[in-house]
Amino acid sequence: MPLGLLKFGLRRKYKGDRYFPAAKPLRSTYDVVIIGAGGHGLACAYYLARDWGISNVAVLEKGWLASGNTARNTAIIRSNYLTPEGALFYEESMRLYRSLAGELGINLMYSERGHLTLAHTDAAIRTSRWRAEVNRHLGIDSELVGRDDLALLCPELDLAEDVRYPVLGALYHPPGAIARHDAVAWGYARGAMQAGIEIHQQTEVTAIRSRSGDSMELDTSRGTLTAGLVVQAVAGMSSEVARMAGIKLPIRSVPLQACVSEALKPFLNPIVVSGSLHCYVSQSARGELVMGGTTDPYPLYATRSTLDFTEGLMANILELFPFLDNARVLRQWAGIADMTPDFSPVMGVTPVSNYFIDAGWGTWGFKATPVSGKCMAELAATGTVPPLIKPFELERFSRLQQVGERGAASVGH
Amino acid sequence: MKIIDCPLNGPRNAQEFVCAGELKREPPQDAAIGAWADYVFFENNPKGVVHEWWCHVASSYWFIVTRDTGTEEIVATHAPAEFFAGQRRMGGVDDE
Description:
The complex is a heterodimer. Chain A is of the alpha+beta class. Chain A contains 11 helices and 19 strands. In chain A, 29% of the residues lie in helices and 25% in strands. In chain A, the strands form 3 sheets. In chain A, strands 1, 2, 9, 10, 11, 12, 18 and 19 form an 8-stranded mixed β-sheet that branches. In chain A, strands 6-7-5-14-15-16-13-17 form an 8-stranded mixed β-sheet, with helices on both faces. The radius of gyration of chain B is 14 Å and the shape is globular. The chains are: A alpha+beta, B alpha+beta.
């Protein structure tokens, strides 16, 4: 309608739609307070309203909406984990992701690329076969492929044999995907706010107390408030926030760095990971290569970038794609990862009643955003731990029942 | 952090060292399983000053680093004997 467009263009005031409803004032009492407005906290808020009709909820965020690890991850989504507990959990997350864009009404740019975990040693081939068998037993699309298949799936990959780590094969996970991480958080935030849930940015929790009776009291930078129960979802600061509630966690906070190249023409379809070379790479919709590696060598809470990381990572990326030697790094950043001893999350109840935790998200948090939000919402609403997250409870360490995912969750082994 | 002042070898590139985690006191052999789980798996993990075991790999030399995990500053490095002697003078090993 050209005439309508002309009239709109000549109007003096534009009536734009707000993406988020206007913020409400902070009140002194809520049924549920969620600490942390990252993907996980926002998803928990959204599912509390959608599945359980609980909307007297505040999400408190010391910084800005989704400005922590939700904005810093490399947006890979997959479910080809090693343990049945892990694989089933992440598979449910992928199932939720596939219909999420339509449900939230936002383009998540969910893009199924196929995920290749390269194997350069006999030991890695063995682990890949193990993962493929576990995955297929659980109905997850995953298989071990050889060099001939790799040449077809990723012709850009250097399959030369006269290198330090020749590629012998790969674990191939066709549904492996990437998505627009910010949009996931924005979609959940809007959905939660439309249901009446409040999101309070620039509101830092400074003290946490159990009150006699059945509630928690929180001091914040904007005053004290009471909550029927609290859900902590602050991956990166989990130990410090849990300490306020008197809870000690099996977590070390370690920076995980990543970087992107300048935009290149689309050439790389699958997500390529190499455990032996400690690196992974995918190409985003705007052409940048998103590249990451292993976590930093010592615990730290500072999100600085280092040249050591970039140099080491590029040496390994060039082993896989030598023709990238002229490509330039556009930007680099770090997020603080909650590293657990078994490379699985810490979710569920804590020694403090009415205080639930969603932590230990190490290098595997973004892909779990929908399922963790849904399960934490169910826990908060019913008080019963959902079977999908039962294996990840904090108590498992005291019982020596870890869920060992080191072989599938990281590239640093 | 690029240079670590090793008590044995002097200032060396940080890449020559490995961090072996927080200084903790090992529980007695007959301690309950919960105490061992706490020792093996759980961490104070503070944002702030922490004492850690580090090793200079090339010389297999173990020592203690006092480090600020908020700023990445190395506050001090200590030979273990000196460190524990100092702790005893101050009344007990500060491991928690």
